[in-house]
Amino acid sequence: MIKNTLTMILLLLCTMLHAQQTTLSPEQIKAITPEWKGERSADGRPHVPDRLLERLKAVHLEEAWGILRNKGYQNQFEGDWIVLHPDSAMTGRAVTAQYLPLRPDADKLIKDKGKAEGRIGAPNSWPIDVLKNGDIYIADSYGKVIDGTLIGDNLGNAIYAKSARGVIFYGSVRDVEGLEEIKGFNAWIKGYDPSYIQQMMLGGINVPIRMGRATVLPGDAVLAKKGGVVFIPAHLLEEVVLNAEFIALRDAFGHQRLREGKYTPGQIDTQWTDEIKKDFLQWLDANPGKLPMSRKELDQFMKDRTW
């Protein structure tokens, strides 16, 4: 798997260098995310709705993971992070970046292409320049901690100013105390160190990347909590959110009826009878304030669900 991943990265790198670009083109991004049929950003990434990203914050990691696994997406979770503010959830759209151990000839090509494209500053600032509101900067820096710090508090401030979000790095940062002072900014990282970035090079922006046990594409919806991060293919976001919300409603109804003694645990934990289903629908009508989605969305969702 590692060999295949490296081969894909090198092929993408060669393609980008040949095409005189440091990032995939909008057409290339559309080509690797063909199942998304909705709005796209100018760079070609899927642009999932803000309303779904806001609702995604309430979804449990296990629920999102389970729904994706049932859809055949078994490699979308990565855990074991150091989280800057563990009690805060973060959702957004992925802007990806691939970093590699420094190789002078390839590094020169990337820097020359970046200069030709009008990019300013060091390559580790280039992914920040493309961020828009609602984006999360996702970087694979192959777990490097010492001399692998992608940002400090200056770049952290720039990231938050552009995206109102934070970062998820399979690597490290520096100046954690300064980053903690940026109100609203959060980070999921593998380590931190006072050293500066050395012997690393940018491989590409908005390319497919590996984040531990997960594969991430540009435009993926991201759910980051203290327990880990789930990377959700854009075309599955609405289904993940609605499924999780429906499960939460079922649980709220079931817990209430169990406390009331109306049903036994065996009745609630197995396939519901028509009587319980009817009771659930009446409960929904009597508790419209509990619905995180519109009733129209819920009714449409329940038509295709086998309870």
The count of helical stretches stands at 12
Quaternary arrangement of the chains shown? single chain
* Major sheet characteristics: 9 strands, mixed
Please name the CATH architecture of the largest domain. 3-Layer(bba) Sandwich
What is the CATH topology assignment of the largest domain? Answer: Glucose Oxidase, domain 1
* The number of domains: 2
Strand % is 15-25%
Helix and strand element order: HHHHEEEHHEHEEHEEEEEEEHHHH
CATH superfamily of the largest domain: Ribonuclease E inhibitor RraA/RraA-like
Total E-strand runs: 13
Tell me the Rg in angstroms.
22 Å
Distance between the termini: 37 Å
Helix proportion: 40-55%
Shape: elongated
CATH class of the largest domain: Alpha Beta
Low-confidence stretches: none
Structural class: alpha/beta
Mean pLDDT across the residues is 93
SSE layout:
Elements: H1 2-18, H2 26-32, H3 50-56, H4 61-70, E1 77-78, E2 82-83, E3 90-101, H5 104-116, H6 126-129, E4 135-140, H7 153-163, E5 167-170, E6 172-173, H8 176-180, E7 187-189, E8 191-192, E9 200-205, E10 209-211, E11 214-216, E12 221-225, E13 228-232, H9 237-260, H10 265-269, H11 274-286, H12 295-303
What keywords describe this structure?
307 residues; alpha/beta; Glucose Oxidase, domain 1; 2 domains; two-stranded parallel sheet; 12 helices; 13 strands; RraA family protein; RraA/RraA-like_sf; metal ion binding
Q: If you had to describe this structure to a student in words, what would you say it looks like?
A:
The protein has twelve helices and 13 strands. By secondary structure, it is of the alpha/beta class. The chain folds into two domains: 2-233, Glucose Oxidase, domain 1 (3-Layer(bba) Sandwich); 238-303, no CATH class. The strands form three sheets. Strands 1, 2, 3, 4, 5, 7, 9, 12 and 13 form a nine-stranded mixed β-sheet that branches. Helix 4 packs across helix 9. The longest helix is centred in the last third of the chain and has 24 residues, at 237-260. The protein is elongated, with a radius of gyration of 22 Å.
